[in-house]
Amino acid sequence: MTLLSSARRLIIVSAVAYLLLKGLFLSGLATEYLQQIILYALIVIIGALGLNVIYGYTGQFSLGQAAFYGIGAYTSAYLTHVFSVGSALPFLPILLVSGLTSALIGYLIGFPILRLRDDFLAIATLGFGIFVRVFLDNSDRLIDALGGARGFVGIPRITSLDLVLPVVVILVLATRNVIFSKYGLFWQCIKDDELASSAFGINTGRMKSMAFTYGCFLAGVAGALYAHLYTFLHPSNFDFLKSIDFLIIVIVGGMGSITGTIAAGLVWVGFIEGLRIVLPTGLLEYRWVFIPLLLIILMFWRPNGLMAGKESKLLGIAKAP
Amino acid sequence: MKALECDGLKKSFGGVLAVDDLTFSVEEHEAVGIIGPNGAGKTTVFNLITGLYRPTGGRVRFFGNDITAIDPARPAGLGIARTFQNLRLFGSLSVLENVMVPLLAKGGYGPAGAVLQSRRYAAAERAARERAMELLSLFRLTGKASLRAGSLPYGEQRRLEMSRALAVSPRLLLIDEPGAGMNPKEIEGLLADIREIKKAFALTILIIEHQMKLVMNLSDRLVVMDFGRKIAEGTPAEIKKDRLVIQAYLGEEKEKTC
Amino acid sequence: MELLSYTLQQLINGLQLGAVYALIALGYTMVYGVLRLINFAHGDIFMFGAFVGYFCISRWHLPIYLVFMIAIGACAVLGVLVEKIAYKPLRAAPRISLLITAVGVSLFLEYFLSLNAMFTPNYIAFPRPFDVAGYDLFLVTITNIQLIIFSVTAATLFVLYLLVYRTKQGRAMRALSHDQETASLMGVNVNATISFTFAVGTACAGVGGILYGFAYPQINVFMGIMPGIKSFIAAVLGGIGLVHGAVLGGLLIGVSEVFVSAYLSSTFRDGFIFVILLLVLLFRPNGIFGRRIEKV
Question: Domains of chain C (ranges plus CATH)?
Answer without folding.
Answer: 2-283 (1.10.3470)
